[in-house]
Design brief:
Number of domains of chain A: 1
Largest sheet of chain A: 6 strands, parallel
Structural class of chain A: alpha/beta
Number of strands of chain A: 9
Radius of gyration of chain A: 20 Å
CATH class of chain A: Alpha Beta
Shape of chain A: globular
Oligomer: homotetramer
Chain lengths: 304, 304, 304, 304
C-alpha cells in the first residue's frame, strides 16, 4: 500500500508541479484533483481517443466561457454536448451583452423591476431577449434550413458575430449537441418564430445517430463532464453500445447517494457497459468555476 | 416576530397533524416541510390553478412511481414534465420487469457480467433493452405518426400494457412533456428504428407552443418540482412570458451557491418574471424518496 | 435479489404504516428511512442495549427540543452527548426566552443593531446573555462544586427552572456528556465567573472514564447520531475498546467523500472496531428537523 | 455594476496570476476563491492583525499537514485551534507512522482484521495506539504538569520527536487550542493514564480566558476556517465580546440551509457581533484538500 505523502508547496511552483505534488497525497480531493488532471492530459494527448465534453451549469455567467472556447480552439475536444442555457448565454455575450457581478442577497422583485435576471450572484439584463429576437428574425432563413439540432447549432455558429463557443465550434468543425435545446432562451426564440407561422423542421432524434456513430467509430473514447444533467447522460448513453469510455473525468457538486445520473460516480457506468473497466477515471467533487481554471493551467503546461 | 414553538409529537398523530405541528416551528427544514405541504394543498385545491409537475431523478428505481401515478390519477396535476429516464424505467416495469434492491458497494464489473445496470443501490436488468426493442418494433406504425414528443408520449401511453405513468397520463388526458427524450432508453429505441430506415418525424420544438399556451391560458399557475434539470427549467421558461407561477414547491438535494438552475431557490425566479412576487413558495432541501411519501399522505388527508 | 416495490400511500395510513411501506422499496432514501426507524425501534426495545444518543446542530432553534426531551423522558436513551450550543439554547428557553422565526435574507448588521443573533432563519435575542449571567451568578456556589462536565451538567439540570433537556436528563438520571462545553454560551458564562476570580475545578478528561465504562459494561450498544461533530465522535471512540455498537442510526446532511468524521457512513466504523460487523446500521441523509418528527411518530406507535 | 469578465488562462501563468484572473469573473466559486486568496493575503500582511486559524476535518490523512506546518512556520498564524483528531494523526506521523492510500470501496471487516482504520480512502494502522500509549507512558511526568489543554499541547509539542504541527507550534510560540481534546486518540491515551491512577489536572475552561484575551488585545482580528465544528465556533465565540473579526475566510463543504454553525456563512456572524460589518469576508465552498494547496501557492508568491 502506498503511503500518503504530505503535500509540500514551495514558492514558484507551477500549477502542474502542484498537480504532481497532490498526486503523492493520493487520497480525498487532492488525489482526485491530481488524477483528474493527469487523465485529462492523457485523453487529450492520446491520438486514438475521441474526447466527448459534456457541460451543464452556469458556466458562462460564472466566467468560464473563454476556457470552454480554448478547449475547443485547442482541439482538445472532438464532441461538445451542452445545455440550451449555456448556448443562450454564449450568444447573448456574442451579441454585445455582458453578465454582471451581483449579489445573492439582492431583492428579486427589485431586480425584476430593474430588468435583471438573477443566477445566484450573477445577473443578465432581461432586454437581451429583444436583441435575440431581432437576431433570429434577421437570420431565420438560414436557420430554418436545419433539420437537426446539431445542424441548427452549426448554422447558428456560422453567423454568431463575435468570439463565442458557438462560433469556435463552427470554425473548428466540432459538433455541438444539445438534446434539450427547446428548454432555453434559444428555444423561446424558435417558439417566437413558430408563433409567426415560420417552420423549423428540426427532428428531435436524428442527432443520436451521429453521436453514437462517433462513439462507435473511434478507437478509444474519453469523457469529460463538467456538471451532470442531459449533457452527461447523452454522452453516457452513446457509450452504451460501443466499447465504453476508456478515460473519464467528472467535475461535479452533486453527490452519489440520491441515485441520480448527475451525482453518479463514473465507475457506476461500468455496470451499464458505458465505461471500460480497464479504463482510468476520476470523480472530482468541486465547483467547476474553481477546478476548471486550475485544470486548464495544468494542461497548458504539458500539451503542445 | 413569531416565536419558534417546539414541535410536540404525540402518539397517533396523523401525518397532516404532524405537518401542522411543524408549521409552529416555522424554521429550517421543519418549517419548509410544513409550508411545502400547505402550498401543495392550496395549488391542488385552487380551481383556477393549473398545476405543472416537473420531475427529475431516479424516482422509479427509487420506488416513487406509484406516488407519481396517484398524483396524475387524482388529477392533482395538469401538466407533467419529466426525463426520458423516468419514462424508460416506467415502461420497463410496465413490460413486466422489476428494479432490484442492490448495494452501492457491489463491484460494477461483476454486475456488468451478471447483466445488471446500477443506479446507486437499485439495479435494472440489462436485458430490458431487448424487450423494449421488440415492443417498439411491434408498435412502430402507431408511434411513427407522432409529430411532437408530447404526442409521441400520448401514443406510447395508449399502448403501454399495464399501470404506469405513461398509461395514467394518457387515460387522464394529462400531457407529458419531455424535451430531452432523445437522452434516454426510449431515445435509443428510436435510434434503433432510425438505423432500420424508419422515420420518426418528431419536431424538437413544437411542444414549447403547447406548454406556453397552457401557462398563458390559466388564471393561476402552480409549479411543483421534484428534482431540477430540464423538467424544472422547461416549466420555468413557460412561466416567463405569462403571469409567473403563483404557487411553488421545490424538493431538491441540490444547493444554491453554484449558480445552476437545479439548485436555484424558487424566489430567484421572481427576478426573471417566472414567479409572481405575491405568490407562495417553499424550497425543501430533502431526498424526494423521503419527502414525497410523507407529503402524499398529508395531502390525501385533506383533499377529497 | 429482492425487487423494488413501488410505494403505495393510502388515505389514513399511520406513520408507522408508511415506514413499513417504504421498507418494500428498500433503496435510496426511502429504504434508509425505513431501516432507520426499524433499527431505532430495535435498539430502544432491546433490554440489553445501552442507547447512546449523540446530537449536534441547531436543533433547539430548529424546534426539535421537545422531541429530544421526549426521547429522554421515555427512557429511550441511556447516555446523551451533545454540544454546548444545544445546552445553551435549552437553558435560554428554560429561563423564559424564545427563539424566533426569521429570514435567511435579513440584513445581519440591522439584526445586530436590533439585538438579534441569527442562525439561518431562526433568531435569538442577544440579551439572553445578561439573564444567563445573572442565573450563573446566583447559582455559582452549587456549580463550582462540580469536578467533571457531566457532573456540572447534572447540577445545572437540577436548578434549571422549567422543562428542558437539562432538567429532563437530570430528573431521569441520564448522563449528559459535552466534551466541548467550553465552546458555547455556557462556556462564556464560566469564563465570566473565572474573570471574577471564581474557580471551576472541572477536569477536561474525567468524563472519558464514565462513557467508556458505560460502553464496556453494557451487553449491547446502540448509537443514534443526529448530526456529527464531537458528539458522534465522542460516542464512537467510547466504542473502540468495547465490543463496538450493534445498532446504529445516523441522520446527517454531511457527505462521505471529504473524509471527515461527521459525514462518514456508519460502516466505516467497522474498520476501527467501533461497530460490530454483525450489527444493523442505517445512514440517513436528511435534514434532522424533517426526519426526527417522523421517526418519533413512528416509534411512538410501536413503543409504549 | 461590474461586468463578469470571462477568465482567460494562458500558458505559464502563476497561481497568483490565476487568482487575479478569477477576480475579474467576480462571481460564484471563481470570485469567492479569488476573494479568499486576497483576504488571506491581507490578514497575514496586516501587522495589526491577529490571525486565528481554525481547522477541522481529516487534513493530516488527506495530505495537508505540511501546509498547516508551513502556515505556522511562516508565522502567518497567531492562534491555532484544531480537533483532537488532527493532533492525534499529527503525533502518529511524528512517531514514525504513515497514513496510506486506500479505497472507499474496501471491505471494512477485512480492513479491521488487517489492522487498518479507514477514513474514506485513507487508512491508518490500528497499532499506532500501542506506540502512542508507550509515548505517553514515557512522558507522563511532564504532561501531568499541565493545567490547561493549551499548556498540555505546548508540552506535548516540546517532546514530539519530528517535524509536526505540535512541534512547529511549540517552536514558534503559537498557542494551540483544542477544546474537545478529550474526543480523540490523545484523549484515549489520557484515559489510559487515568485508569492507571495517574492524575491530569487539566481544567476544561481555563483556555477560554486566553483566547478571549488574544481577541480583545489585538487591534484587528482575522479568522481563517478550514472546516467548521468546534475550532470554528471556539474562535467565533472569542470574537463576540471583542470588536469582531475584520477579515474572514472560510473553506467549507457544509451548506447554510440546515442552520448549523459549520455551514453558516461568515456574514451571519455580523448579527452576533462576532464579525465587523465593515470587514472583508469570503466563504469558499470547496474541498480543503483542493483549495489549501492552491491558496498556499498563491500566498507564497506575494508574502515575503
Amino acid at each position: 500500500m502506498k503511503p500518503v505523502h504530505q503535500v509540500k508547496i514551495t514558492k514558484g511552483m507551477s500549477v502542474y508541479q502542484i498537480v504532481e505534488e497532490l498526486e503523492k497525497a493520493g487520497v480525498m480531493g487532492a488525489g482526485r484533483f491530481s488524477r483528474a488532471a493527469k487523465i485529462l492530459q492523457k485523453m487529450i494527448q492520446d491520438k486514438e481517443c475521441t474526447v466527448f465534453f459534456g457541460q451543464a451549469g452556469a458556466m458562462v455567467p460564472g466566467g468560464m466561457k473563454q476556457i470552454i472556447i480554448d478547449f475547443l480552439q485547442n482541439k482538445w475536444v472532438d464532441v461538445f454536448v451542452t445545455t440550451g442555457a449555456t448556448l443562450t448565454h454564449d450568444i447573448v455575450e456574442a451579441l454585445g451583452f455582458k453578465h454582471y457581478q451581483g449579489s445573492a442577497h439582492d431583492n428579486d422583485e427589485k431586480l425584476h423591476k430593474q430588468g435583471y435576471d438573477r443566477m445566484w450572484d450573477s445577473y443578465m439584463q432581461n432586454n437581451v431577449y429583444e436583441k435575440l429576437e431581432k437576431f433570429f428574425q434577421e437570420n431565420k432563413e438560414l436557420l430554418m434550413q436545419a433539420t437537426s439540432i446539431r445542424e441548427f447549432l452549426t448554422k447558428l455558429g456560422s453567423i454568431t458575430p463575435k468570439e463565442s463557443i458557438l462560433r469556435t465550434a463552427h470554425d473548428n468543425n466540432i459538433p455541438i449537441f444539445c438534446p434539450a435545446l427547446a428548454d432555453s432562451g434559444i428555444g423561446l426564440m424558435i417558439w417566437g418564430q413558430l408563433e409567426k407561422g415560420n417552420n423549423f423542421p428540426i427532428n428531435a432524434f436524428s442527432d443520436i445517430k451521429e453521436i453514437i456513430r462517433r462513439s462507435l467509430d473511434s478507437k478509444k473514447n474519453g469523457v469529460f463532464y463538467v456538471g451532470g444533467g442531459v449533457p452527461k447522460n447523452f454522452i453516457q448513453q452513446s457509450m452504451q453500445f460501443s466499447k465504453g469510455a476508456y478515460y473519464g473525468v467528472q467535475v461535479s457538486t452533486d453527490v452519489p447517494h440520491y441515485g441520480g445520473s448527475s451525482g453518479a460516480p463514473l465507475h457506476e457506468g461500468i455496470s451499464w457497459g458505458k465505461l471500460d473497466p480497464r479504463g482510468e477515471y476520476a470523480d472530482l467533487y468541486c465547483d467547476a468555476t474553481i477546478a476548471l481554471p486550475i485544470l486548464h493551467a495544468a494542461l497548458l503546461e504539458k500539451i503542445n
